[in-house]
Automatic annotation (TrEMBL):
Transmembrane segments: 16-37
The protein's role, per its UniProt record: Flagellin is the subunit protein which polymerizes to form the filaments of archaeal flagella.
Subcellular location: Archaeal flagellum
Keywords: Archaeal flagellum, Membrane, Transmembrane, Transmembrane helix
Phylogenetic placement of the source organism: Archaea, Methanobacteriati, Methanobacteriota, Stenosarchaea group, Halobacteria
A Pfam family reported for this protein in Swiss-Prot or TrEMBL: Flagellin_arch-type
N-terminal signal peptide: none
A GO CC annotation given for this chain: archaeal-type flagellum
Protein name: Flagellin
Amino acid sequence: MFETILDEEERGQVGIGTLIVFIAMVLVAAIAAGVLINTAGFLQTQAEATGEESTSQVSERLQVVSQSGDISDDVANTTERGIGELEFVVASAPGADNIDLNEVSVELVGTAGQETFQLDEDPPATNDIFTTADDSNVLTDNSDRAEVTINLQATDTFEDDDGYALTEGDSLTVTFTTASGASTTTEIRVPTTLVGDDGDSVRL
């Protein structure tokens, strides 16, 4: 059944062929392992970066503590009563890193259309951190509080020059978006009857 090779030269040739095949298999396996290791490292790095960005978009956002508006007897160049200026008290959400208010954008969506601007654009917006003594506009701790003021009558619209001033019964959606892309949306609804004098503040 088995053929015995007695010729020493023929036996040596068979051994060299097997060795070449073995070395080739080892080289292919080594190359494949190197490719897999490099790919795994790249995927790990990309996954870590994606995870950090996703965490930032969830946690690094503003939290609206309170919202109010100033009553005006003649908003939008009319004799109607309404809200000409909005005031928000904001803080950083739990788990958020430092948030630079000057890099926060505001989006207004209402009956007058849509408008986006930065919190450092004065007018229509101003911001002031009143819980610290310095002039920094960066929220560094969850206990920090900042007052954000938006002059609705100083905003521009495509339809008219009266801005986004709200009359009784109007509503407005305000969205704050931080530099990391995390958004916070709040709804402003003006009561159908405003109780108070011109210049008074009312919670919305």
